[in-house]
Amino acid sequence: MERTLYIVVPCFNEEKVLSISSRTFGNKLFSLMDAGLISSKSKVLFVDDGSQDSTWEIICSLHEENPAFTGIRLSRNQGEQTAVLAGLTIANEACDLAVTIDADLQDDINVIDQMIDAYLQGYDIVYANRQSRATDSFMKRATAIAFYKVARWLDTGIEYNNGGYRLLSKRAIRALLQYQESGLFLNGLLARVGFRSTAVFYDRAKRAAGQTHYSYRKIIDFALDGIISFSSKPIHMIGVLSICLLLASVVLGVFALVRTCLHAALPWMWILFAICFFGSLQLLAIGIVGEYVAKTLWEAKKRPLFLIEENLN
Ligand code: UDP
Ligand code: MG
After folding, report:
1. In the chain, how many domains are there?
2. CA 262 from centre of chain
3. Do the bridges between strand 97-100 and strand 166-169 make them parallel or antiparallel, or are there none, so unpaired?
4. What is residue 17's DSSP assignment?
């Protein structure tokens, strides 16, 4: 049975690259159709994320040329994650599987073949991860590596080195759409969704044309969303720190007491003891308040408590 694939492409002010990349996406779609891997109803779905240039006009003319190119236009710029989610919401009505990919040809389109292979083997989520960051600037590479390492250490479940190029089965898309939260970080949510997932790898190329939309400030905001929305470990660490400080103050207190009993008191030691002891109490209080704040955060997100993978009933 042939399945319908939607290639979802978020586009924000991409007039410089879209005329080149749309051909590449189209050719891939048609070659997959010719190979009988996907149905003739498959499409490339562009999501214009409130562009101010001629991105939308280009999408409209592509659609007029061939209805295999289609698009939606968001009322304003909402950011890449929301644009992808909007695209998946529309794709979900018609597709069996979707691939999300950037508009700038940095991601190797031919990897889609391997992703479809994995999908046919029963995987619901197939991440296409960067195996090399040679084309990134030193700063971008360093910040990305630091982010993924911290994210892994904090057990966020965020896929290592995945920049948003992935295949999702209809089941995975439906599950993802049940999450109704702002501060979107799709890879974090996909880790929560579960189902069978695997990864394929590719080398990331340079942008075919145009410029990145991610300033360092935006990257930091995005990274914070990824960590704060998926881990309360930083809050637990306040508690751990307060206990360490309390233990240190006990040692200092015993030492200071012994020295005082031996008539060799060290006044600075008592001062240090007081700083550590009262500091640890304050940290403990902050940690306890933090635990309640974290609970409130998880409640406010109203994430689905479970998702059903199979049902024989
Ligand atoms: N993008 C978007 N909305 C935004 C910013 C970016 O839809 O507010 C799209 C953009 O058009 C591209 C993808 O997200 O298709 C990745 O953006 P970019 O290439 O600028 O990021 P980088 O590859 O430099 O991390
Ligand atoms: Mg890019």
Report:
1. 2
2. 60
3. antiparallel
4. H
**In 10 A of CB 65, how many CB atoms?**
11
Candidates 104, 137, 186, 212: which one to mutate for ligand 1, based on the most atoms within 8 Å of Cβ? 104
Report the pLDDT value the prediction gives residue 1, as an integer from 0 to 100: 67
| Residue of the CA atom closest to atom 13 of ligand 1 | 102
CATH code for position 137: 3.90.550.10
> For residue 71, what pLDDT is reported?
96
CA pair distance 153, 144, nearest whole angstrom: 14
- Smallest CA separation from ligand 1 atom 18, residue: 212
Ion ligand 2 contact residues with beta carbon within 5 A: 102, 104, 106
Pocket of ligand 1 (CB under 6 A): 10-12, 14, 49, 77, 79-80, 83, 102-104, 106, 212-214
- Residue 205 and residue 197: Cα distance in Å, rounded? 24
Residue 15 belongs to domain spanning = 5-228
Pair (173, 250) in one structural domain: no
Domain match, 196 and 267 both = no
Could you tell which of 102, 148, 186, 225 is best to mutate to test the pocket of ligand 1, judged by most ligand atoms within 8 Å of the CB?
102
88 contacts 100 by C-beta, under 8 angstroms: yes
Pairing of strands 97-100, 197-203: unpaired
**102 alpha carbon – ligand 1 mean position (Å):** 6
3-state secondary structure of 66: coil
pLDDT at residue 132 above 90? Answer: no
Mean pLDDT of 96-101: 97
pLDDT in tens, 260-307: 898 888 888 899 999 999 999 999 999 999 999 999 999 999 999 999
Sign of the dihedral defined by the CA atoms of residues 197, 128, 141, 218, in that order: negative
